[in-house]
Amino acid sequence: MSIIDTTKDLAALFELQAQATPDAIALEDEHRTLTYAELDSLTWSLADRLRQYGVGRDDLPTEDCRPAGTARIRKNLIDLGLWSDAMLDRMEIVPGNLARSRLGLSPEAFEELASRAQVIVHAAATVNLVYPYAALRSANVGGTREILRLASRGGATVHHISTNGVLPPSREGWPEDAMIDFDDVPTKLQDGYGQTKWVAEKLVVEASRRGIPAKIYRPGTISGHSVTGAANTYDLLNALIIESLQLGQAPDVPDWIVEMTPVDVVTRAIVALADHTDGQQLVYHLGDSKPIPSAALFDSLAELGYETGRLPWDEWVALWNEKRGSRGGGDDPFTVDILRGGMPTVDGLQGAIVLKDDATRPTLERYGVHRIDVDSALLETYTRHFFARGWLPHPPRRLTNGTASPQKKGRLSGKVAIVTGASSGIGAAVAFALAKEGASIALAARRTDALEKLKTKITSSCTPAKVLVHKTDITSKTEVDALVRATEASLGPVDILVCCAGVMYYTLMANVRTDEWERTVDVNCKGLLHCLSAALPGMLARGRGHVVAISSDAGRKVFPGLGVYSASKFFVEATLQSLRLETAGSGLRVTAVQPGNTATELLGMSTDEEAVKKYGEPSGARILEPEDVAGAILYAVCQPEYVAVNEVLIEPREEPI
């Protein structure tokens, strides 16, 4: 049986006999049903979150015995650190089977359950990436149909837990409204699990169209609890990480990006969204929209005392087979058995399914749910749990100063920024300010000695901080392209590009300093274009990004003695205005920062003494410091995604234009 055979007529699956349905029902103070097939960390973290609402639960275990079901639930919750005896007072077990009609219940029991259930969180599925569609259809497709039938009887609201596996691999990311066409399912969704979940989603979408209140949640790759570290024991990614740390060697796989969304973040998101019925959005993405490069993951683990070398994939597999996989006896760690049972492939590691969350994230932030970055603090929690379970030979090096809670995140935590002209002046001040707010920074300039000093300042003052130093002459497109590639490989996709590199020469037009004219055009104009050409395509593909460029108040008004410089800044203004207008609606933000007189090295670059004497002498006013301009840029980049600070004119108070 194939997906094509079973879904030629999707309408045949909709025998719901739906009654008139009310508006969506919130979780609070309502009776609800939580379904599960496998007692995984997502289901039970969700159960733990729902306890806060004091709501009842009907669970559908595959056991036919209530005491056995209770014991199984208790065992798994103890393993996850979630059990409380008080849960028994709010728990009612209904033995059933997702793969059967009416969930395996008698007609009377089914109708009685339907009459009481007001909110259904459908987290049940048979998860197997090897089984074909036919083997999973009854539980995953048929079970969803029966859940919708149950909801239709009494007007319950359905919260359907789906998966990123309903979409093909994409590093650029899928928006919330993405759903592939039926004809593409057999070829673009290679495993039966993803195919069954795709059909299940179509059922929920159609049920919603017919009037059943419903929401669909697509998690990504779910990792352990951000506080306790408790995780799915049989997780393949955890096994791969643990075995790498045991070997002291990590796989070096190009374009392998790692998504690890803490389970408690996913469950908080589901509960928050389920408890608010004001939105019209049907599908929500709960994965990490910014996975990190695998190299960055192992670099962070090295900070915790788990240093690893790097080996190409085939060499890593050969070494693992020699040192770990071929050992005999029954005392092998569980992670060895996991990899023996299904070693991933390079294609599998590179085939990430990234979920954009542009529509979901603002809603969650409004409800107080924020994504947690995969950084050293989170990995410390995970590795401490791994050690406690006996999976690692020693505990991690403590990075949280002995406290139980991680350090406060900055407003730009998880963001990646490139700053050109970072060796001094405004560029150095901007880089430091962004790093203080948690951004990972790529420092670009020609003077690497100055960049290394700035890196030392950042890493000693901003903990934890990830800083890349990259020698770059922005007049060379080749070097700028290499800068962006190196940043993405080491730190991740670029979120913020701050173009600070520039030159300024006081010179009279009549003195014809053509070398300084050409240098001004090369750096201020062509340099900006090189930066845009390297970073812009990735930002547009991901549907978000922020371009900031240092213009000048001379880009708004021509100053005598600065004719060519003013012309170059008029060029910057025109370029940014065009970019802003042409990309409106793409998720890109474009900010032109127009400083007045600022205490930087620019003031000492001029060689035309006549021009300096006539137009460049100090006025006596207190001029700006680089940190003043950096503060304005920080304000712009820290605004909510929907807010665009298009221009910032910042000048000494006594020197307005």
TrEMBL record:
Residues 68-270 form the Thioester reductase (TE) domain. InterPro entries: ANL_N_sf (IPR042099), FAR_NAD-bd (IPR013120), NAD(P)-bd_dom_sf (IPR036291), SDR_fam (IPR002347), Thioester_reductase-like_dom (IPR010080). Pfam families: adh_short, NAD_binding_4. One of its GO terms (biological process) is fatty acid elongation. Keywords: Ligase, Oxidoreductase, Phosphopantetheine, Phosphoprotein. One of its GO terms (cellular component) is endoplasmic reticulum. One of its GO terms (molecular function) is ligase activity. Belongs to the short-chain dehydrogenases/reductases (SDR) family. This is NAD(P)-binding protein.
